[in-house]
Design brief:
- The chain has 511 residues and is mainly alpha-helical.
- Helices cover 60% and strands 4% of the residues.
- Helix 5 packs antiparallel against helix 6 (128-153) and helix 9 runs parallel beside helix 10 (212-219).
- The longest helix is centred in the middle third of the chain and has 31 residues, at 223-253.
Length: 511
């Protein structure tokens, strides 16, 4: 009697995962490990056992592709329906899109930068666990860039300021703030990059951007942005886990890693926090219909979830909350106002428009910011008088920039909110200026790196930005008439009124 061959045992999920990821590892035979992985030793980090890395993704490539394809199918169905129904006319107001212009110019290119460097890590990290996790995150990041660009491309058909965003990202003054953040991370070593992006960019920045702001997008009628935001956020939750795993892995490998990681946490907390100044302005001032104040978002997603959760976990390894975190907590009452006031004064040199807050917004600010609003409102009341007299406050000169975060020096001392905060350091005979103790701390630890910062104002003065006058610089930026300035009376504002007047006319059935 012939015995049928025994069917091969079906692999468990764990075995299948291991076979398709970690079992693809091999030992080099004709080159040394140091030659094969040359970039994981110069930062001073000590790794004794790469197999201890716990992979937070736990997805194989085929499962990952199927999972993301389902999300893309739902997203593009929303995009098609929105475009075909002229959904842009259902927004609360065209002024809402100024926030999305800033998002496209400042955030979407960072997603692509993250894709590039995680692809680099997927080759150059020694262990198969972190290499595969980096590969998956690299795929996530390029998908985010693509879906954001596709989503916002529909608005480019009708509104100014959405064109040439990549060209602008490399040149425009306010975009040097997020760009310098990533330039700093990309020029660091692989372990510092993991902390910079996995901790600062994912935990701090995307928590404060993708969750409250995407809710604001929904609240203002922007269904496509809400959809891509929450589609991306499901990936960000894995990315945050990867960042936390990276920190714990480094801390568990060797006690000598602890002070190195602590400094990186100090540095990248403040670097990420300063970038969130743009998010604060978007959330409080650029959403016509408010959903959550910057102060509320900061208290929930940073103070409660990170200080009350993440750093409680890391205390076991000897990690303390970031240096200067007390300053950030003090600033939550002021940050959005000061950041938007800077953007308001310089929007004639921007690819978005700004305007004064209306009466409803001012009532909301009075409720949300009882400490700062009595002082901040005097700025807007003075501007009301200026507008009534036929003026509009645009600063025609060039501002002093912080050497590290590259934001114009518009932040104040928290103990004296009427006094501009300014710090300075003399390094090799030259003075460098900073907006805060946090930025000064970062410079003092890496002065040779940060002295090379590409500061837009300095470049304009040196004649490296196309021309010596504003029209020439704007042309070099790639901006077109109608991209920036005052919103009321702008191309977008006038078109919005015309389209809605026509819609009302059609609904009434008038000739």
């Amino acid at each position: 009697m012939t015995i049928a061959p025994k069917a091969p045992r079906k692999l468990s999920m764990k075995d299948r995962y291991s076979a398709l990821t970690r079992d693809l590892e091999w030992d080099p035979s004709y080159v040394s490990t140091e030659e094969m992985f040359p970039f994981t030793s110069f930062e001073g980090i000590k790794i004794h056992d790469w197999s201890k890395w716990e992979d937070p993704f736990r997805l194989t490539v085929d499962a990952y592709a199927k999972y993301q394809a389902e999300k893309d199918k739902r997203l593009y169905a929303v995009l098609d329906g929105f475009a075909q129904s002229q959904g842009h006319l259902s927004l609360t107001d065209a002024s809402y899109l100024n926030a999305m212009k800033l998002f496209l110019q400042g955030v979407s290119p960072l997603e692509y930068q993250a894709h590039r460097n995680f692809a680099y890590l997927s080759r150059h990290l020694n262990g198969p666990g972190p290499r595969f996790a980096s590969l998956c995150q690299s795929l996530d990041e390029i998908r985010h860039a693509q879906t954001e660009i596709h989503t916002l491309s529909n608005y480019n058909k009708y509104y100014a300021g959405f064109h040439s965003y990549l060209h602008m990202h490399d040149r425009v003054w306010y975009l040097s703030v997020p760009k310098s953040f990533f330039d700093d991370a990309l020029s660091a070593g692989p372990f510092e990059f993991l902390i910079a992006i996995g901790f600062s960019f994912e935990y701090l920045l995307t928590n404060l951007l993708f969750v409250p702001f995407m809710s604001g997008a929904s609240f203002n009628g922007d269904l496509p942005t809400m959809t891509f935001g929450f589609s991306a956020q499901s990936d960000e939750s894995r990315h945050m886990t990867l960042g936390l795993e990276a920190i714990k892995f480094l801390l568990e490998q060797d006690p000598d890693n602890v002070p190195i990681v602590q400094h990186w946490i100090n540095k990248w907390f403040w670097r990420g926090y300063r970038v969130t100044a743009l998010v604060a302005a978007m959330l409080d001032y650029m959403l016509p219909r408010k959903v959550m104040s910057w102060k509320e978002a900061f208290e929930l997603y940073f103070e409660q979830q990170m200080l009350g959760g993440l750093f409680q976990d890391l205390a076991y390894y000897g990690i303390e909350p970031p240096k200067h975190v007390d300053k950030a907590i003090q600033e939550k009452e002021w940050l959005s106002h000061q950041a938007y006031w800077i953007l308001y004064q310089f929007s004639h040199a921007a690819a978005f428009t700004t305007t004064t807050p209306n009466d409803e917004a001012r009532e909301w600010f009075a409720e949300m910011y009882p400490e700062s609003w009595p002082i901040i409102k005097t700025l807007w009341e003075k501007e009301d008088q200026n507008l009534a007299n036929g003026g509009r406050h645009f600063i025609r000169g060039l501002p002093q920039l912080c050497q590290v975060c590259q934001i114009p020096m518009g932040f104040t001392e928290m103990d004296d909110p009427l006094k501009i905060a300014q710090r300075s350091v003399i390094f090799e005979g030259e003075r460098y200026n900073f907006c805060s103790d946090g930025c000064q701390y970062i410079f003092e630890h890496e002065p040779v790196k940060f002295r090379q910062a590409w500061l837009p104002v300095h470049q304009i003065y040196q004649g490296n930005c196309g021309a010596a006058d504003l029209p020439g610089v704007l042309q070099w930026y790639g901006m077109q008439p109608g991209d920036g300035g005052e919103y009321l009376g702008s191309v977008d504002n006038e078109n919005w009124k015309t389209w809605h007047a026509q819609a009302d006319h059609n609904e009434l059935g008038e000739d």
